[in-house]
Prior knowledge:
Chain A is mainly α. Chain A is about 80% helix and about 0% strand. A four-stranded mixed β-sheet of chain B has the order 2-3-4-5.
Amino acid sequence: MNLLKSDFIIREPLLVSILVLITILFSALTHSYSHAYDRRRVTLGVEWFERGKQELGNGRPAAAVEDFRTALLYNPRNWDYSMHLADALSQGHHTEQALNYYLGLWQSQPNNGPVNLQLARLSAQKDDVPGAERYFNGAIFGDWAENASANRLTASLEMINFYLERGDSGHAESQLIILSDNLPEDPQLHTRVADLYSRVGDDQRALKQYRQAAQLDPTYLPAVLGAGEAAFRIGDDPAAQTYLSNSLRLDESNAAAKNLLAVIQAVSLLNPYQRGISDSEKAKRALRAFAVAGNRLHSCATGPGSSAAASMEPFLERGKQLKAMANARFLIQHPEEIDTLLDFSASAEKRAQSSCGEPTPDDSALLAIARRRETEER
Amino acid sequence: MSMPEVTTAAGSTPSVPVHPSWGAFANRLTAQLAFNEDRFFLILAVFIGIFAGLAVVCFRITMEWTRLYLLGSALTPSPWRAFLAPSLTGLAISALIFTVFRGSSGSGLNQTKAALYISNGYIPVRTVIGKFITASLAIGSGHSLGPEDPCLQIGAGLASAVGTRLNLSRKKLRILGPVGAAAGLAAAFNAPISAVLFVIEEVIGHWSAGILATVVLSAVSSVVTMRLFLGAEPFFRIPSVGVIRWQELVAYSVLGVLGGIASVVFSTAIGWLRPKVKASPKYVQFLCPSIAGLLLGVIALAGFPQVMGAGYDFMDQAMHNQYTWEVLGMLAGLKILATTLSFSSGTPGGMFAPTLFIGAMLGGAVGTVERLFFPNLTGSVGTYALVGMGVLFAGFLRVPITSVFMALEVSGDYTIILPVLVATMFSYLISRKLQPVPALEQITRQDGLYLPAMEEEREQEVLTVEDAMRPRPANILDSQRPVADAWMFVQGTDEEHFLVRRPSKSIAVISRRDLKKLMDAGDVRPLEETQTLAVVPYLHPDEDLQVALRQATNYPLVPVLSRANVSRILGVIDLADIMEAYRKSNRQDATRE
Lengths: 378, 593
């Protein structure tokens, strides 16, 4: 009797058992077949990935793109391959394609730090401010497989640079303030942050960061020199002198430090607004400043090959008019005219700065005095 | 249609008497444990799904191995491989088709349909093996064809083999083919809903709960099996869809129009070239796959190797904005050319993947152009590519519902529904207008087969009862009326049959002849008591005329009742009315043609 064809009670379980048996056999065969192919796929993926990395290393991003795409053909879910492909696209200046690729990766891992950072960089390149901000923040607060704090720091610094390049000092400063609260004890890092503070014009915080850096490593020249410069900018000449002298001890040949020390010296001789000096000393300093500016104008207007003569003419004319009041007695009697002389001197120096070559320390001192006055008045 | 008489006063059907004896219990147990084909069929659908899933896994891996050996492991094959592999493999495929696997060339979908309608769902195992080998060789060597059609046929073939060996009834065997086809397609597509809808929309043409259950079971089990081995990842990375602005629908409409035109170009090209190849001498037919391969190699050497094979990897790139619109447009055009060459040459393989490829490229091109002119308006180019797939699917394969669901299923994002609906409808309507015979239908006709065209069947006008019924007759009798009264009531009319209202609210019919007989016999009883009333079923105006036809052959007159109030008679219908309605409809069809 054929059990398979009968309506006998056991026909159904018997058939199901046979089908299960066939399924097991078929599955086993398929498994070994697919396993063999999977192994081959993995090997091919690795081979093409390595090839791509080599091409990328040799500066051939176009070839690397093709290799990484092939690698992904064999291992489509490999994150590393995808990231390298996107990097290669980016390096090959296929910004739009790279952006799309990173976006694809971002959709699967929106908290991935490296992807956010790359997207932020590409958005910044495209001048996409909201996109760049979103992805920079994603990178700062995202997940990093290794060196998380260092990478977050890099992302923060890049974000600050992004704002600075766009002239958005306000946002840059806000980010700097957030960043400087959590800085590790690294003099180089403090110095870098201080440099950024200087760029946004926040010299007080810049000086603080330089000081911290110099405290952590008193032999770290950029920090010491930066502290001197920042101190000078905020008008703390004694501190500036100390730091600059220290910097010269670290590097005697440092021209910038020497020059700034000379400028500080000149400021101390030319600044009529220094507190605690007598009226006659004020007048003397104003006259000295007037003379320095006059010399600068004269040499600028009459110097060999000078092209600025015409633009200096009104200043020379004004200088002649002011000469009448340029005596000590008059200035002692009319101290308010010190401002007139200093204003003229500052304007002349500013004009000369743009077209008359490198200023002397005295000229720089006059500019610094003018700057400090403006700051105080504000 | 229903009969009020059947329902009892209590509103329930009479229960079967239970005999609490051991013998009856044993009988019932035996009856329940005995082989039940319907129940077993559901279990079988799961196994067929698993077998089809496993077969598709093996098929895809074989295809990949073939590609590795013939085209190399690089994403873009080297020029000499691209030039030689498809043409030399074409020769090998011809040799196999002309000697061992004669039934393996061409579209698996049409062959499956032919098997279903011509040979009761029987597909020879040799055809399945032949399709497996030749299609994997063809696609693996770079012929511009897709693996879905072969997978569909492999699934149907496996189902047929299992059903034949299990000695299932002919009726079940005929259903088993589509069950296997859905399983094969679902695993090949990694999209069970689309596969089920496609098989219902294009292969079976109708569905019932039983068919739907088996088809769904097999499709789901095949996809699960396939995913166990190949993973659940889609064939391409799905782009984010995002919110679609209403202005963008204009661009999607343009995509629909372009897709419709591309579909027509594609099907016209195949419709033109394929009969020429089939009419050529045998030795030319033998060489055709090789010649097609050679031309494909030329296209690849000209800088467009992307058109080789199924092209899923390049669809992925198109979706992620990796090509300019010019390249995308070129790729769409060249894919039409390449697929026309490969398919018309008789090389085994399907047109699903090429259709998706063309759609993706076209969609990508439209999206990129729009982004160029309206940078603030366009969503992702990938969305356009996804919609483009559905557009070509609707235009070329003429399966609009499947197309919409496919785009939804593939994207997994409901926001795509609007653009897909708009674009696919444009494409479908344009394609229907410009190319009345669908591509697949055209191919079967070229092969000398006249299989039911599902689209034509869907489009046929359905006649309903209201198209044939006459107005409510004036002389409706009451069953309580005495015979003489009734006789008087029907005088002055030439009707042969009269409706009679009964107290139970059912309606009966009495003929003039019966009434006269009662009159002549001097019967004075009310009609109700004369035993001459024949209770008739009733119809509603919106019911299919075929249902009415079935009733009218058994009853001389059938009342048509309101659905809102079944005691209200709207009209009557008889066989002559129905025949006249059909005649009238035929005359109108003839006038239109």
